[in-house]
Design brief:
The structure is a single chain. The chain is of the alpha/beta class and about 400 residues long. It has 15 helices and 16 strands. The strands form three sheets. It has a seven-stranded parallel sheet, with helices on both faces. Strands 13-12-11-14-15-16 form a six-stranded parallel sheet, sandwiched between helices. It has a three-stranded mixed sheet with strand order 4-3-6, with no helix packed on it. It is globular.
């Protein structure tokens, strides 16, 4: 029996997805080919939110078959971040690739792109099954009552093109159901990261941990809070800094430090705020790639993501691989699946600085409990991995392409 031929379509190579694609390609009965609308992420590019050149320090297109589709807008200028919206990239010729490849199914990542709709229509016309994975949830974007009603009509059309929906988590699955997608058509394919990579990188030897502390000018024994994300408004770094300023001096909490790993347009104002509100207790580490971040995860005692709008937040997965407590707002999509209040961290009300200060105190108050929360984070994330992704994908493919996969 020949392998099931699966086409994967996404706007560009994504650092989080590359190891998953390699893992899927290792399945003996699945033959994967990835099609990308742009190649900008494979080289250095200037990202406006970071305000600097970015070059990913992981291999993005190794270990699986792939092709970059032609774009009607032309190849983006080297070193730039092209617009990513409904009309860009405007890939074409996917229909010819589907014809030539003899594909059984097409897995599309994201539905907010014309090229992806074109691919789904082309696949449907050829009798090729369509799988869709997307991040949308009820909290991923502000929506009026009229817009929510329009979404249901939108999903009525989308549901006629898609055979199986791949849910990244609880809120994503609920969103599909709220928009009249039958639960029998939804398969769990959780948003995961390369757990082994982040766990290995975070396992700092005691000496290496203290050397890193000394390099950052951090006194031994004092607990460390970490924020790792773009320094932009919707991530609410200023809110975290305001809450931290209320308690950083408290001896009962060990006089904690706060580290900001990331860059962006708010950095200068945050540095001024830190100097005014928590002098000497805050460090700014700048942008860190996937090779650098695990060491920061291993150094901290607890991680905080206070975003006001976060479809998922894969950084939560990453830091849990380091065995650390996690604190997130109730607008972070990963929260319902990965954060268990009182067990491995806490969830606070978004944009509520008083509530954030409260949970920071609770988490930092007991060192032994804090360490136990970290161990629980690791236990949770070990069951939220690429293996669960592959299992969910196989279930979806078996449902829409019966008889094409080897029995499990």
């Amino acid at each position: 029996m020949r392998p099931l031929r699966l086409a994967y379509l996404v706007t560009h190579p994504i650092q989080y997805q590359a190891p998953l694609l390699r893992r899927i390609n290792a399945e003996p009965d699945i033959e994967l080919t990835a099609f990308f609308g742009s190649d900008f992420s494979t080289r250095s590019f200037v990202a406006g939110e970071f305000g600097r050149a970015i070059e990913w320090d992981v291999k993005l297109v190794d270990g699986y078959a792939h092709e970059f589709l032609p774009d009607l807008w032309g190849k983006p200028k080297s070193g730039t971040l092209p617009p990513l919206d409904f009309w860009r990239p405007l890939s074409y010729a996917i229909a010819r690739r589907l014809d030539a490849g003899g594909f059984d199914a097409v897995w599309v990542h994201g539905y907010a792109h014309w090229s992806h709709w074109s691919a789904m229509v082309s696949a449907r016309a050829r009798g090729i099954k369509v799988l869709l994975r997307d991040e949308a949830t009820a909290i991923s974007a502000p929506r009026s009552a009229a817009r929510r009603l329009a979404k249901r009509a939108f999903f009525a059309g989308l549901g006629r093109l898609v055979d199986a929906f791949l849910a990244i988590g609880t809120l994503n699955r609920r969103y599909y159901i709220e928009n009249a997608i039958a639960p029998s058509r939804i398969f769990a394919m959780p948003y995961a990261v390369d757990n082994a990579h982040f766990r290995a990188g975070a396992e700092l030897a005691p000496r290496a941990r203290e050397e890193l502390r000394a390099k950052l000018g951090l006194e031994p024994g004092r607990p460390i809070l970490l924020f790792a994300a773009k320094l932009i408004e919707r991530k609410r770094p200023s809110l975290l800094l305001e809450a931290f300023a209320r308690l950083h001096h408290e001896a009962a909490l060990g006089r904690p430090y706060l580290l900001f790993a990331g860059d962006g347009p708010l950095r200068a104002s945050l540095e001024r705020q830190a100097q005014a509100q928590a002098p000497g207790a805050v460090r700014f580490l700048g942008f860190q790639g996937q090779a650098d971040l695990p060491a920061s995860y291993g150094l901290c005692d607890a991680f905080v993501l206070p975003s006001a709008l976060e479809a998922w937040g894969l950084v939560v997965n990453e830091v849990m691989c380091a065995g650390r407590a996690v604190i997130v707002s109730d607008r972070v999509g990963a929260g319902p699946d990965l954060v268990r209040p009182g067990e491995n961290g806490a969830i606070f009300r978004a944009d509520d600085v008083d509530d954030l200060a409260r949970v920071l105190r609770e988490v930092l108050a007991d060192k032994q409990r804090l360490a136990a929360m970290g161990r629980q984070s690791l236990a949770i994330i070990e069951r939220w991995s690429f293996e669960e992704d592959v299992a969910g994908l196989r279930q979806a493919l078996a449902a829409v392409c019966p008889g094409k996969l080897a029995p499990s």
